[in-house]
Amino acid sequence: MEDESLTGYAAIIPGGGLMGELVRFYDWSQTSIIGAIEGWSPSLKTAVSIMFSSRYPMFVWWGQEKLNVYNETIIRAFLI
User: Fold this and answer.
1) Which is nearest to 8 in space by CA: 24, 20, 27?
2) Residue burial 22-34, b: 16+ Cβ < 10 Å; e: rest
3) H/E element, 61
4) Could you say which of 10, 23, 35, 63 would form a disulfide bridge with 6 (CB–CB 3.0 to 4.6 Å)?
5) Residue 3 class from Cβ within 10 Å (0-12 exposed, 13-18 middle, 19+ buried)?
6) pLDDT by residue (tens digit) across 38-48?
7) What is the distance between the alpha carbons of residues 35 and 54, in angstroms, rounded to a whole number?
8) Backbone angles phi, psi at 21, to 5 degrees
9) How many of the other CB atoms lie within 10 Å of CB of 52?
10) In angstroms, rounded to a whole number, what is the distance separating the alpha carbons of residues 68 and 4?
């Protein structure tokens, strides 16, 4: 269930720290791979939300082009 206190893209894809912010503020409507966040499939929204709420390194490959979206924890895992 979505957090009713959140608005805009944060309600669609909550959490994620800095990476979540970057994903929410990126102009996805200019991409041919997945388009605007409002039009993302429920499966993609769910996968990204699960990934951003995890404290474990995770990423999602999406579409034939294999667009890669990842959480902050994966960055930390590779920096150590």
Assistant:
1) 24
2) ebbeeebeeeeeb
3) strand 59-62
4) 10
5) exposed
6) 899 999 999 99
7) 24
8) -65, -45
9) 23
10) 28
**Three-state SS at 59:** strand
Work out whether the CA dihedral 73, 48, 50, 22 comes out positive or negative: positive
Provide DSSP, 26-53. Answer: S-GGG-SSS--GGG--HHHHHHHHHHHH
Q: Which two tokens stand for residue 17?
A: 């720290």
Residue type, 72: E
Residue 40: closest CA among 23, 21, 58 = 23
Residue type, 4: E
